[in-house]
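re: ur msg from earlier - yeah i can do the magnesium ion complex, just paste it... oh wait u already did. ok heres what im feeding in:
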Amino acid sequence: MISITDALSITKKNIPPPKMQEYLIEHSVEKYLSKDILAPEPSPRYTNSAMDGYAVRWEDVSDASKENPAVLSVIGESRAGIPFKGRVEKKEAVRISTGAMLADGCDTVVRVEDTLESDDTLQVMAVKKKGQDIRYKGEEFNVGDLLLHKRTKISAPQAALLASVGIASVKAYKPCDVAILVTGSELVSAGESIADHQIRDSNMIMLKTAIQEAGGNVVSCLRISDNKQATIDAIGQARADIILCTGGVSVGRHDHVKDAAEANDFKPLFWRIRQKPGKPLYFAKKEKSLLFGLPGNPVSAFMCFTHYVRPVITTLNGLPFGWPTVSGESTDDIINNGKRTNMIRVQLTWRPNGGYCISNTEKQGSHMLTSLSGADGYIILEPEQILKSGERIDVYRYDFRREPV
Ligand code: AMP
Ligand code: MG
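and the outut:
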């Protein structure tokens, strides 16, 4: 048996480099950029009007007031998409729409509200300063400026920014492929009829959801009975960056995952960790494919997934190996009386002036799914470690409970 620290360092060392791929921007949403994006165009692309009004020359209107309006002739119009082709000379103006290109010769825009127009004669009755209501070419950014950092997640505003400068595709990290293999002759699905001696399969839907929440791509979901040849065949046929098995990884006569992995030339990297829950976790590698054998107990499977598999998924997706954590203060003494490192499910409560406080979920059995569904995260206590009431500790937060509750 090895420690959690050793198991994590073996895991981290054996993660292949992330894969990258060119994506059309509509397919890049939720992915992370694999390189910096520099602006290929300036923004704004051309000097334009910020208002509906008239493009004028400052020297013709600088003294304009309600009592003494500047009088100009309107010689044309610059519309969004249809610019004015000529040049504005002394005492001339053009009508201009928001976003339309500023006409040659003009340096100022007056708003419609500050003017009166009849028969192509314009009276300008108020003006504040030279250059007012103009958006200048490149005032937001210029060609070559950094727009988005490597590892930025593409969401709506980032996709819009890319589109706004004419970038139709980007290089991003390719989400890793995960194949799920659930083992157990006792298992039936939620919708099927069940005999007294059978168990409902909760790991399949749990892992599928957790993989997706972690950013992985589920490529296959298969359930098989505890049969050695079936397990060998299923592992042999799985095509994924990570093969995620559950059940069949302990010392029972019908536990075949380890043998089946090794029959497929996977090299074992560790089996059994000094932790509770999740002691029987198995990890193996074949070329660039990783295989995790999670214990069958749903809580153990989820805890092993969260602490070991999730950071592998994020690393393969181009992000750091790590966990989302938050510091919390214990409301009770919490003690680990056992011989193994304990991952204890906890609830977080937000106190407006005191940050998070932590309370222990009551029933912590590794077969008790309510110890997960009602928890916000978990803390890790070494054997004999006592977390005193009032002491602070890092809480590893579950993906499904990231907002304060
Ligand atoms: P195993 O690791 O295969 O020995 O399974 C340990 C315990 O977890 C047994 O009680 C199994 O019935 C239960 N179990 C295994 N796989 C699942 C599953 N997919 N869903 C729910 N319980 C399971
Ligand atoms: Mg089993």
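cool cool. The domain at 325-401 is CATH 2.40.340.10 (Beta-clip). ping me if u need the other ligands too
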